Amino acid sequence: MTALYTPWGEQIDRTCPLPEYPRPQLRRDSYLCLNGLWDYTVEDGDEYSRRRSGKILVPFSPESLLSGCDFRLQSGETLWYERTFTLPEGFRRDRVRLHFGAVDQCCRVLVNDRPVGGHEGGYLPFTLDITGALVPGENRLTVAVTDDPEGGVHAFGKQRTDRGGIWYTAQSGIWQTVWLESTADNYVRSLRLTPDFDGKCLRYAVRAEDPAGARVTVLCGGRVVARSWADERGEGVCPIPAEHFRPWSPEDPYLYDLEVTLPSGDRVESYFGMRQFSVMEHRGRRVLLDAGHSGKFARNAEKLGVDLSRVDTAVLSHGHYDHADGLDVFFSQVPDIPVRARPAALSPQYHAERYIGLKGELLERFRGRFLLDDGPVDLGDGLWLIPDGVDHEQSLVADTEQGLAVFNSCSHAGAGHIAKDILARFPGKKIAAYVGGLHLMGATGTDSLGTAPGIVTNLARWLLDELGVEALYTGHCTGAPAFALLERAGDGRVHALTTGAELEL
Fold first, then answer.
1. Residue 368 neighbours by CB distance under 10 Å
2. Phi, psi angle pair for 33, to nearest 5°
3. Which pLDDT value is given to residue 48?
4. 25, 80: one domain
């Protein structure tokens, strides 16, 4: 098999790849990137047998080409990373914190052979306070990693040690940036920034052990235009003067700079844009379609100023965990709104031997919150639920002044068949927009193509030219190669569907 590099892969700096600050919305001037060449050893069990050793380029997993390695970490093996570092003069303040963007799946961390903590779960960042383990001059950092992509209690996505079918090549080890920063004892842990577009102000919450008196400064082109001080809870409002109010838009994606300083001296930089965002709204109805595989959608909604309590209709497109498991967060936050689904969506779903349906805990706790109907269902106000050829899947259809808007998450029954059936159900109507994934990616992920290029091109022509769909908004399971083919064939009628995008019909 021929190794293929992108132009960026060919030009990567092996002394310190990806050196940019990895958390731009919470930036400090104390930053030391630890990416680069580390020593590694692979062993059976938990002892240094040095069965395999060498150099690995962090933050790339050993299964990736850019890591410089050529092995897959097996269940029962431990991957040991090791490197040294020296803190620059003046770097150390009260505390020194070690950050990992992600380590797959379980790890233990040692500094100068002293345990400083660990983490379980391969997809989330974590931070360790290593102040007490540091010594003057050179320090040694060791990370021990284990991974079981075949199962266990941790999320592992569509990974298997032996790829094939829907299974991707397993990924293990350190696969996101590793860095150090120094903070005051009382430091800014996180920020919640909520632009109030109508109120022409920024609502904020500073999270720290003692956030009282945090100073929040808004800058425009390096000039201070607004300033506010947080209350004892770290919350406050910072009005934006009318002469400096500049809305964010795709045509003018303007971002304000932000500085937050605590009385302890801890200081971070951030940014924000003045924009509005909402869930689907149709003739006064606010609709939530799917909730993803976790509570991340709720966090995104909060960051974008979406009030989930104002949702009056919730719909589950189909019964796969990556569209439904986040509903437990919705059910907890919005206690009185049921979720409409087809009966088969709550049945066990499998791909080969792997369970891909709703998690049992969700069904056990919230089964009574689902409103089941095989449809079609008239929701009123020009909204319908239309079943398709997959027994647990349905589309949300809205009748607008420009035509029908069709929302289908993965189009497992085929987008062309779904669109054709909907047009037959609504004679005389046209589809102004088809929104959703098209299930065209290959087994190795969104960078692969799961069918022949000609089939993708023909699908675009069928949807856009023969069926008269005026615009196609797609993402999720479509995949990058398929999207490129669709975009080329669509002649300006195919658009990328992204988080925070707005569609007005």
1. 7
2. -80, 135
3. 47
4. yes
E-strand ranges in 296-407 read 313-315, 339-341, 350-351, 354-355, 370-372, 377-380, 383-387, 394-400, 403-407
How far from the centroid of its chain's Cα atoms is residue 392's Cα?
A: 25
Mark which of 227, 252, 272 sits at the end of a domain.
272
Helices (DSSP H) in 156-260: which residue ranges? Answer: none
- Quick check: 496 and 490 in contact, CB under 8 A? no
Domain for residue 112, yes or no? yes
Tell me: do 178 and 207 sit in the same domain.
no
Using CA atoms, how far apart are residues 184 and 95, in angstroms rounded to an integer? 6
Query: Do the domain assignments include residue 178?
Result: yes
Q: State how far the Cα of 412 lies from the Cα of 406, in Å rounded to an integer.
A: 14
User: Is the same domain home to 240 and 370?
Assistant: no
Q: Domain check: are 440 and 468 in the same one? A: yes
Q: Is 31 helix (H, G, I), strand (E, B) or coil?
A: coil
* 171-210 pLDDT tens trace: 899 999 999 999 999 999 999 888 877 678 898 999 999 9
Query: Among residues 239, 256, 272, which one ends one of the domains?
Result: 272
How does pLDDT run across 399-437, given as a tens digit for each residue? 988 899 999 989 999 999 999 999 999 999 999 999 998
The tally of domains found in the chain comes to 3
User: CB of 416 within 8 A of CB of 467?
Assistant: yes
Contact criterion met (CB below 8 Å) for 437 and 475: yes
Structure-block tokens of residue 311: 């949702």
Query: In this structure, what CATH number is given to the domain that contains residue 255?
Result: 2.60.40.10
CB 383 within 8 A of CB 289: no
Is the same domain home to 75 and 24? yes
Residue 196: CB partners within 8 Å, gap ≥ 6?
Answer: 202, 203, 237, 305
**Residue 455 contacts by C-beta under 8 Å, 6 or more apart in sequence?**
none
Question: Hey, which residues does 218 pair with through a beta bridge?
Answer: 226, 258
Let me know if residue 1 belongs to a domain: no
15 and 107 in a single domain? The answer is yes
**What is the CATH number for 425?**
3.60.15.10
The 8-class DSSP code of residue 299 comes to H
Read off the tokens for 217.
């400064």
Q: What percent of the chain has pLDDT over 90?
A: 53
| Amino acid at position 53, single letter | S
- For the record, the structure tokens of 227 come out as 């300033």
SS3 per-residue string spanning 119-171 = EECCCCCEEEECHHHCCCCEEEEEEEEECCCCCCCCCCCCEECCCECCEEECC
**Domain membership of residue 21 as a residue range:** 7-183
